[in-house]
Amino acid sequence: MTSTGESLVRVETGQGVATLTLDSPHNRNALSTPLMNQLLAALEAMEGDESVRVVVLTHTGPVFCSGADLKETAEAVASGRIPVAMLGDVLAAIWECPKPVVARVGGPARAGGLGLVAAADIAICAEEATFAFSEVRLGVVPAVISATVLPRLTPRAAAELFLTGDTFDGRRAERIGLVTQAAPAESLDATVAAYCRALVLGGPEALAGTKGILHRRPTATVREELSELSALSVGYFQSEEGQEGVRAFREKRHASWVPEGLA
């Protein structure tokens, strides 16, 4: 395993998994400009690292992310350079990352922190973790995060929770689609590890392509949709990665892209 140290975002890599740790517990991992800049840099670096197959987003301290850094925001109002203006870039980087992103949420998440959770492809939280769209209680709106949150939530839950700002737990977060799974705190890490192991078994190009399908916008007609998707499927079957995957299956072995420790 290798590691690089940064002041607000720590990066560790091993077995095809890069773990990005929000490391600003003094302000409950708030989304300050420095933290967001470092998170963007880390995501960009992991995107270009061929040894990295999966990205895990986690945290130090009891809080996953408290949302916007309100101290910095208050000081920046006069200049007009509000930190939340950067949040869209962070959410887009997670959403568009060609590698699967897994959010590990061991504690509370609020406001912008829920945007991070929703932007991830898979999100695992502790059952005891709490969540709240607290924006309205501050006199602001959950505008930026709605781009990643609303595709995940049921409409009724979104209306209730956006408008009331009420707190809810990990079990409800799972029921309404905000997270993939709520696990007991003692099995959180094992659950995340199991998902990561499953993800690294997939072909890197195939995983990126599948994320593209999950996020694509439908065409005008079903026939056009099927035509485009058929061409996409044929291309992957004809690709070098696709041919290796089929050979590995027929030969009852792991494909060449599977990390050695898992083969």
Automatic annotation (TrEMBL):
GO MF entries: catalytic activity
Q: Which residues form the signal peptide?
A: none
- Please give the Pfam families that the UniProt record associates with this protein: ECH_1 (PF00378)
**Where are the membrane-spanning stretches?**
none
What family does the Swiss-Prot or TrEMBL record give for this protein? Belongs to the enoyl-CoA hydratase/isomerase family.
- Write the protein's name: Enoyl-CoA hydratase
Q: Give the species this sequence originates from.
A: Phytohabitans houttuyneae
